[in-house]
Amino acid sequence: MYGSFISFFSVLERLGGVQLPLSAGPDHAATARAIVDHGADTLFGMPSYLWQLLHAEADVLRAYGGLRKVFYGGEHFTEEQQRALKDTFGIEVVRSITYGSTDLGPLGYQCTESSGGVHHLHADLHTMEILDLAEDRPVGPGETGRLVFTTHARRGQQLGRYVIGDLGREVPGRCPCGRHAPRFELRGRTGDVMRVATYFFNHRRFLELAEERGGHRGELQVRLDSTDARERLTVRVERTATTDPEQLREVFLAGYPELRSAVAERLLDLVVEAVGSASLDRSANRGKLLAVVDARG
Fold first, then answer.
1. Alpha-carbon distance 233 to 7, whole Å?
2. Of 40, 250, 60, 215, residue with least CA distance to 235
3. Cβ atoms of residues 121 and 152 within 8 Å
4. Which of the residues 35, 163, 208, 293 could staple to 223 if both were Cys, CB 3.0 to 4.6 A apart?
């Protein structure tokens, strides 16, 4: 997890916790052996890598049965993915370890009442604004926009109205945990919003529809291509025993009015593919899932 690895390596060392500093390498079998041999009960890492590890070595780790907690950073597990981890591996706690950036430091934290992308703001350190995607104006209540931070505690340079590249929305009301710090929900990256066939589409919306209406548990990636006739949007979903691409295609068309209009107007071809996890495109240096792959040239 790059900066997070260094941060939490130091935190755990100061707390006196026993830790196994394993890299997110492709040898999942070796990582699983280390977990079992040393009796590890907690995993820290990026969701896309942990998801690959747990499913590549599912038989070994289920038989071990010692994993109890997963803390993640850099991305977040969806509710369906969290449910799958708990049902399949007996994991009791799946929670964000922190939300932050190298430039600004820690920005948000999860309480016991928060899950997924919901965090409390470190309000003593930062001020947060949520701005429209296209204009520098605040979004309406509950709307998704660009997260912009001003830090009050950094020394050396002033970082005011810093555009971090993340999307989010305000979570209204007092948190059941009793804290007064504002809450916000991460809703992806600015690059996850794509303009295709005159419409704006959001990767997060595809993922929500796949999970809530299609029962999908796994990763999802959107690929954009140009053809001689029109643009093509391909939703690539991680294949499971119950994956039905045609059914998911109908879910997307029924639940996403803008997508339905683009297809009906013959501005866009919609394709849904079920593929193995290894076939999904990932960043070369971190192995992080690329939510959107724009190959239109």
1. 39
2. 250
3. no
4. 293
Strand order in the sheet with 93-96: 42-45, 69-72, 93-96
Write down how long the chain is: 297
Q: Which residues contact 27 (CB under 8 A, 6 or more apart)?
A: none
pLDDT reading at 264 higher than 70: yes
Rounded distance between C-alpha atoms, residue 173 and residue 192, angstroms = 27
- Whole-angstrom CA distances from 81 to 41, 217, 222 are 19, 6, 18
- Which of 116, 117, 291 lies closest to 220 in space, CA to CA? 291
What span, in angstroms and rounded, lies between the C-alpha atoms of 145 and 23? 34
User: pTM for the complete prediction?
Assistant: 0.72
Which strands sit side by side in the sheet containing 220-226, from one edge to the other?
Answer: 268-275, 231-238, 220-226, 292-294
Dihedral sign (CA 234, 53, 86, 100): negative
Which residues does 254 contact at the CB level (< 8 Å), separation at least 6? Answer: 213, 260
Give pLDDT tens digits for 20-76. 988 877 899 999 999 999 999 999 988 888 988 998 899 999 999 999 999 988 777
* Best mean pLDDT range from 2-6, 102-106, 273-277: 273-277
